[in-house]
Amino acid sequence: MDLGTPIHLIPAALDRLMPLHLRVDPAGRILSIGPTMAKIVPDGSLIGADFLQVFVVRRLTRLTTLCELRRHLGDELHISMQGSAPTGTFRGLAVPLHEDQGLLINLSFGIGVIAAVREHALTHADFAPTDLAVEMLYVVEAKSALMGAWKDATFREQGAKRAAEEQALTDVLTGLRNRRALDLAMADLTRSGESFGLMHIDLDFFKQVNDTHGHAAGDHVLRVVASVLSSETRSSDTVARVGGDEFVIALPGMVDVGQLATIARRIIDRMTQPIDFEGNTCRISASIGVTLSTFYSPALAEQMQADADEALYASKRGGRAQASFHAPGERLAGIHAKTG
Amino acid sequence: MHGLFNRSVQCFIQDTYGASTWAAIVREARLGEHGYEPMLTAPPGLTTILIDASHRVLGHPRETILEDLGTYLASHANMTVVRRLLRFGGADYLGFLYSLRDVRERARLAVDDFNLPSMDLSEQGDGEYRLTCLALIPGIGYVVMGLLRAMADDYGALVFLDFFGEFDGAEVISIRLVDGSHAAGNPFDLALRAG
Question: I need a surface site. Which of A43, A168, A179, B140 has the fewest CB within 10 A?
């Protein structure tokens, strides 16, 4: 076989072409190493050492003799230093030198290039200009910066969504007003001094509906409740869902105890009607607490809500499916006028 | 036009002049409430609209704003990623100048729809170079000049830069590299430290 004319390279040229090379003599001892290899093992201990002793050379299994290595000249090899971490594996290639002068082994960092660059503080000068290692580092860094930018973009979108939700006045599930809308309406009413009734409604047995028939049934029940509340009130009233199964109605101009009791009674009557959902019957009822702005001077939104809430719990304690009125001046005594 | 161009302008204005100035510029540019999403493509000309609005709000000449933008991109603490990506170009300032010829392809390696202006470097002798930038955005040459100035500091090189002129839709910068290792420059590790 014609092997062609031998190429002579001076060591400096070899160092520039292959900064990670090793030259091994016919007996397998390391004769010289490239500058980047010298940077990785700076103590000079490689020169004169037995290549197959200091390096673990694998094809599929470990190649332990020069004879075995010679059978894989020109093949891709996995080479690591004896005792090094698995990330320190080089990709390698061994070729014979002219006239049985030994072997030339060239290495590259392969996939472990980032760890190697970090560990050995390698710079541009440690790579041949033809090596794409620096480009690989560049791409990895650019891509991780981009991942960060995408995450920022996602945060921005979520932030915008949250801001929009905060601005919203509508409860998404029921289409009723939400807590924010109620607070605004209450603030308007107390500021203007217009008298109004306040009704706090809590569903009874709603948790059982959710537990027994699932959340879809629960959502359906909430929508039915919403339509009942809307149909039993005037368009000028503010009907808000303020919690999972809690609703508050502000009724401007409505400060007649008798009329409010009638409205509450009608709401409870309709809530206690069974609600059908996909062949299942859901049963709930409602407990209501009521207070009137005319009980106060001045009427404060927070106080009224707290009193309506307390009246509501009196209804719960009284056996549910009923409405209680806050008793002005005797709030602490807990005396409530029951309807019905 | 990639949204990253506009994002650069936004970050530059916000980090240099504050969020309220940026808000004033967005109002001046009449972009509406949402503006744009930097990771998506924006309508062409938006960057110029933003620069024009910045010019009206800040009262600085456009060229100054563009050059400051370039300096910001290569040197501000919030933009270390840009500085680092540029430093990958070369071991020294001359290597960096040479790498600008590949910067467009490099950028597309990371973001395939991100089209930086193509650049060409020619040697005039005596340490004189000319960098020709295709003017995707009018005035891009000033941005590149600011960037070259900041990178010279980063490499510790002494350079004189001049806006040479506009020719056939390209903007040309003249570069005189007086000393490639005038000062120590900033350190650069090829691999980011862990953590």
Answer: A43
B108 HSE (CA, 13 A, CB side): 10
Amino acid found at B182: H
In this complex, the residue of B39, B85, B190 whose CB is nearest that of residue A153 is B39
**With contact defined as beta carbons under 8 Å apart, do B122 and B143 qualify?**
no
The packing angle between helices A215-231 and A206-213, to 10°, is 140
Give the ranges where B76-130 is alpha helix by DSSP (H).
80-87, 93-99, 103-110
**Residue A14's pLDDT band (cuts 50, 70, 90):** very high
Q: What chain A residue is nearest to B79 in terms of C-alpha separation?
A: A145
SS3 label, residue A91? strand
Q: How many CB atoms lie within 10 A of CB A15?
A: 20
pLDDT band at A333 (very low <50, low <70, confident <90, very high): very low
Q: How far is A154 from chain B (nearest CA, A)?
A: 10
B38 to chain A, closest Cα gap in Å: 8
A136 touches chain B (CB under 8 A): no
Amino acid letter for position A63: L
HSE of B11, CA atoms in CB hemisphere, 13 A? 21
Q: Is A245 a catalytic residue?
A: yes
- ipTM of the complex, rounded to two decimals: 0.77
B63: exposed, middle or buried (Cβ count in 10 Å: 0-12, 13-18, 19+): middle
Beta carbons of A135 and B109 less than 8 Å apart: yes
A194 contacts A281 by C-beta, under 8 angstroms: no
On whether any CB of chain A is under 8 Å from the CB of B109, the answer is yes
- Best probe of the B interface among A109, A117, A132, A141, by most B CBs < 10 A, is A141
3-state secondary structure A200-248: EEEEECHHHHHHHHCHHHHHHHHHHHHHHHHHCCCCCCEEEECCCCEEE
Does the structure show a pLDDT above 50 at B145? yes
CB-based contact A153 B110, cutoff 8 Å: no
Q: Which of A179-188, B3-12, B155-164 has the highest mean pLDDT?
A: B155-164
> Over the stretch A62-117, which tens digit does the pLDDT of each residue have?
999 999 999 999 999 999 998 876 667 899 999 999 888 999 999 999 888 888 89
The answer to whether A128 faces chain B, any CB pair under 8 Å, is no
pLDDT in tens, A107-153: 999 888 888 898 888 999 999 989 988 888 888 888 888 888 777 77
Per-residue pLDDT at A281 exceeds 80: yes
Let me know: does B188 contact B83? Beta carbons within 8 Å: no
Measured distance CA(A155)–CA(A164) in Å, rounded? 14
A-B contacts at Cβ under 8 angstroms:
59
Count other C-beta atoms under 10 Å from residue A143's C-beta.
Answer: 13
B85/A149 touch (CB, cutoff 8 Å), yes or no: no
**From A141, which residue of chain B is nearest by alpha-carbon distance?**
B85
